Amino acid sequence: LGVPPGWAGSVVPALDSFVFVPGTRSYTNVTNSITDENYLMVESIVSELGSAAVGAELWLNWNGIPGVSYQVLASTNLSDWYPWGDAILGTNSVIQLPVPVGDPPAAFFRLKANN
To answer: 3-class SS at 76?
Structure first.
């Protein structure tokens, strides 16, 4: 990508329906060539959420993507969703999250992803 000396702006990669990680990069006062500004192109940053019962806990799991932040949301009624724990930064591996059974137990979970 060629830009004039002193350029400032953002680069937002796009191709068909793919998603890029990171979703944008901002630059100020570009005066020299910049290298190794790689992007990861994926079909979706939201992985399929899996689960398994282990003792008194429910374990949620999904495949993470580096640079993507994941937030598990929980609900007891499919209308009111609340964050379950802190956001988790993805890595190039399976992410596992134990969910203790509460009162009332959260019966439904979904995964929110941001890049």
So the answer is: coil
pTM as predicted: 0.70
Distance of CA 2 to the CA centre of its chain: 30
Q: Which residue type is seen at 30?
A: V
Q: In this predicted model, what pLDDT tens digit does every residue of 56-106 receive, in sequence order? A: 788 888 888 888 999 988 888 889 999 988 999 988 888 988 887 766 666
C-beta separation of 87 from 113 below 8 A: no
- Which residues 6+ apart lie within 8 Å of 65 measured at CB? 21, 40, 42, 45, 47, 90, 92, 113, 115
